Amino acid sequence: MRVPRSVARSVLVVLSSLVMGVVAFVAPAAASTGNIGGRGADYFFDNGFDGSADVRITYGRDADAVLVGDWNGDGIDTLAVRRGRVYHLRNSLTSGPASTQIAYGRENDTVLVGDWDGDGVDTLAVRRGNTYHLRNSLTSGPADSVIRFGRAGDDVLVGDWDGDGIDTFAVRRGTTYFVSNSLTSGNADQTFTYGRADDSILVGDFDGNGTDTLAARRGNIIYASDRLDSSVATVQMSFGRASDRAFAGDFDGDGVDTFALRRPPAPPPTPPAPTTNGGLVGAPPYAGSGTFAAVPGSSAAGNPNASRIVRVRVETERGIGVDRPEFGRLVMSRLNDTRGWGRYGAVSFARTDGPADVVLRLTTPATVDRLCHPLDTRGYTSCRRGNQVIINVNRWAYGAAPFTSAGGSLNHYRDYVVNHEMGHYLGHGHASCGGAGRLAPVMQQQTLFMNGCRPNGWPYP
Fold first, then answer.
1. What range does the domain containing 307 cover?
2. d(Cα 335, Cα 340) in Å, to the nearest integer?
3. Does 236 lie in the same domain as 162?
4. Residue 364 near residue 377, CB atoms below 8 Å
5. Residues 6+ apart with CB under 8 A from 383
6. Per-residue pLDDT tens digits for 393-409
7. Within-domain flag for 412
8. How many domains does the chain have?
9. Which of 49, 63, 74, 337 makes a 20 to 30 Å CA pair with 412?
């Protein structure tokens, strides 16, 4: 993009129409939207492509959702913290309080950052499915324009692809990129392939010519291209650790975008093994092998006369100490419980160790972040992505504080996490507490908040 505007943006996809709750730790196939993702409060900025940090700051809280942009038009990208629908913008790369605070959109919206009108100041946009609501000032209020582009499930990038000073959108589908050069609904202006499907992609003006291009990150190696096409990288550098979340921007105002890192905190000490183990043997690790083994064998549908039979393959990550058959039994007993989704005969679940409609995986926090990407799970929540229901082993082992603090047991939390995430697979979105003292709907995000409701793990309690 053209100076003095911010550029490259790293991924965020949050809450609401998504399938889970919060946000990621490892950085697999990221798309650039102005949201940094990851977690941690330590940031490292390299202003010269040499792989060393020129500036290091501590900012915000470990679990904050953080954005990057040029909030005041001075040509330097800085950070902002998002907490719910309130944004705390800082206009210098230093630790300290926010320079500006605004409220925008809904608490669970997916938000993107860009200069939508070419005035040199980055502002916000809300994405709801494939509809984008663009705001041209850093103030609260309705959108200045609304457009549709791509598909609801696309990974989205933001950049100035043609050097006209205005950020527009591109969508990524595997290794194929569809670029639009105008903020209007319609087809892509350019299509090309780039990198690998599992690359983490960053966007920036890496040569200062006013046009944004792509960079691929693999582990801690970054390959940046000066051309918006399938050509090879013109810059290759190592920077930081593979577990860091990388993002890009112009951090010194020289008109060239470089790279920065958000570093996760050290993993917490391993907690004691749970007293009710749910099939687990010992305390689960934070990271596992990233490979999976299916629970062997099969079991018939709880109701063979149901209108729909869903075949479920239950898998556990290698490296987790778990009794697979017992875990599979616990999962299927919850899915086919009379209080579950199949109560009125609409659906029933059959387990298989072969081809399946949906795969339910028990995974370590680090692998949850990889599989749930671009959802930002922060090593904490579970999720549903496509035909995968991904259960965080730490939540299975220890539950979640909001749920248990409201009187829910660990065993009941397990009812909830299985039925909630499978509910997403069945097409159910998030629901809200209906009033203090009432049972929470199973599709309420009870891992994160109860809002006065009582814990509930069943669709039809």
1. 292-425
2. 6
3. yes
4. no
5. 18, 19, 20, 21, 368, 371, 372, 375, 377, 390, 421, 424
6. 999 999 999 999 999 99
7. yes
8. 2
9. 63
